[in-house]
Amino acid sequence: MECWDLFLVEERIKTFKNWPFSDKNKCNVKNMAQAGFYSVATGADDADAAKCFLCGKELDGWEPSDDPWAEHKSHAAKCAFVQLGKNEDDLLLPELLSVIKQYMINETKRIAELSKEQIDEKSKVVRRRCLVRK
Ligand SMILES: [Zn+2]
């Protein structure tokens, strides 16, 4: 996730610029955003690519009749947001805090994963240099 803004449903709605379905469809922008998704589309080819702000699950290939909550649930049952199963406006403070906590845990894991990769990369380079020197 790029920034904390995406915790807010209004901000997630703003990310859907070329969403293929209209508000009459169940799979509309508002329902997508309420189910935790924001758009990660880069162009016309992946106009329906969407990602969960909390668990980071990315889904595309949406059908107009899809229920974003149901899809989120079936593809990422462990997502803390799915497990609450509520719109943000209805969340109680402890629930909201647990979502934020889960986000921090996920983010910390992601960063740890990234730095591990960087360290592995670096150690490879160092090893190669040592071998050359011998
Ligand atoms: Zn999720």
TrEMBL record:
InterPro entries for the chain: Baculoviral_IAP, BIR_rpt
Molecular-function GO terms, alphabetical: metal ion binding
Zinc as UniProt keyword: yes
UniProt keyword annotations, A-Z: Metal-binding, Zinc
SMART domains: BIR
Protein name, as recorded: (apollo) hypothetical protein
Organism whose genome encodes this protein: Parnassius apollo
